[in-house]
Design a protein that fits this description.
- The structure is a single chain.
- By secondary structure, the chain is α+β, with helices and mostly antiparallel strands.
- The protein contains three helices and ten strands, in the order E-E-E-E-H-E-E-E-H-E-H-E-E.
- The strands form three sheets. Strands 1, 2, 3, 5, 6 and 7 form a six-stranded mixed beta sheet that branches. The protein has a two-stranded antiparallel sheet with strand order 4-8. A two-stranded antiparallel ribbon has the order 9-10.
- A hairpin with a 2-residue loop joins strand 2 and strand 3.
Length: about 150
């Protein structure tokens, strides 16, 4: 169990774990970038961040679950699945069309099939990042895409 502190964006949060502030990167999902150092956020970046914050601020229970691989990335962030009141945050972001399945690194991919299925539902419904085929293509968000 952890306590929510803040969100950098839709896929990176800060929590208190065992009395220490930790940065957590959500396993296997990517949300559009806030572009703090480059200027304007990418389309749907603010929506993804607000969605994440809203769920976590209103949660009664937040839990991290680690996969079988490395628990930290090259930036010393914890790599975890985040459960918010027993609902997987990554899956919620994917179903809303606010994230894409990305950065799949075995063996930290136990829920890959489940995530791809949630993404397909959002894509079929043309939800948010999936409204057009032009925004998320070739496995990444188009830096030059402008939303309507």
């Amino acid at each position: 169990s952890v306590e929510f502190v803040s969100a950098n964006d839709g896929d990176t949060i800060n929590v208190m774990l065992d009395g220490k502030k930790e940065r957590v990167r959500l396993l296997m999902v990517d949300t559009p970038e806030m572009n703090y150092d480059k200027g304007d956020p990418m389309p749907f970046a603010e929506e993804a961040k607000e969605f994440t914050i809203d769920l976590l601020e209103n949660a009664t229970k937040i839990e991290l679950l680690f996969d079988v691989g490395d628990e930290r990335d090259n930036y010393d962030r914890l790599l975890a699945y985040v459960f918010v009141d027993d609902v997987l945050l990554q899956e919620s972001l994917l179903k809303q069309g606010l994230a894409a399945v990305r950065y799949i690194h075995e063996p930290n991919n136990s829920l890959e099939a489940q995530f791809l299925e949630a993404q397909e539902v959002a894509n079929a419904n043309k939800s948010n990042i999936w409204k057009t085929d032009d925004y998320f293509k070739n496995g990444r968000f188009d830096e030059n895409y402008k939303s309507e």
